[in-house]
Amino acid sequence: MAGLVRRIKRIWVALGLAATVLFTVWCLLAYRANADGRRASLTDDRVVVVHGDGRWEFRPRATSLHATGLLFFSGALVDPRAYARLARNAAEAGYPAAVIELPRRGALGGAEGSPVLERGRAAMAAMPAVRCWVIGGHSRGGEVASRHVLAHPERSTALLLVATSHPRDVDLSALQLPVTKLVGGRDGLATPARVARNRHLLPSDTRWIEIEGGNHSQFGDYGFQPGDGVARVSRQVQQQRLSEEALRLLATADTLHACIPSADAH
After folding, report:
1. If you ran DSSP here, which 8-state letter would residue 146 be given?
2. How far, in whole angstroms, is CA 57 from its chain's centroid?
3. Strand partners, 73
4. Quick check: 160 pLDDT over 90?
5. Closest among 228, 204, 205, 206 to 216, alpha carbons compared
6. 185 touches 219 (CB < 8 A)
7. Could you give the residue ranges of the DSSP H alpha helices within 58-163?
8. C-alpha pair distances (Å), 9 with each of 6, 12, 23, 87, 200
9. Which residues are within 8 A (CB) of 90 and not within 5 positions of it... i.e. 6 or more apart?
10. Is the bond leading into 203 cis (omega within 30 degrees of zero)?
11. Cβ neighbours around 229 below 10 Å, total
């Protein structure tokens, strides 16, 4: 009898280890940038892409640039190149952009504390011609973006929150900046119900955009995230809406905050 119990325990341990390995492999594959994301992260004749120091910079080649830029924080575990299409679209419209990789991809506390905020400040310092910044983030990156606008308000001119239940731990209701929040109707992680519970922590004039049929993963160019809902719209549709709203905020920041380019921006 004792031998049978030991064999059963060994089987359960083996099954548990196998399940853990399979889940880990699935996550590693799921959070990788897909072909569209990898392609958008390459330099071409319209955008110069520079990677280093925990960020991806997208600099327009155009001779006439806006002095407003996009600073976007990646979701936890997600390859930052998954947001390259968003950043490239901004850069092609003349707005410099930077995608910030969370330290350790957000694992083991990488999305917490000041180091991730310092990466954002370093990206801003690397583009001195940009006077105003739209701060954004996807999923856990939205939490980082929320903290960033509170900790460093000096050049933060708008906030873009994408598929995130944040802010949850900070109150942004008195924030005097344009805020846009995008929600996927079939998001299995930042569900519409979870997001709505924190509505009171955002300014009353926040622009709320729900993409019917959109899920969590398709706001970036990566695989199907564990726990997500199945989308009923294409990734292209979600990506287009995201870019449209980002460009809208960038244009608003240009207008409201009179972000005049410095002489060395041309």
Report:
1. H
2. 14
3. 100, 137
4. yes
5. 228
6. no
7. 84-92, 115-125, 140-151
8. 5, 5, 21, 51, 50
9. 58, 69, 70, 96, 97, 243, 246, 247, 250
10. no
11. 19
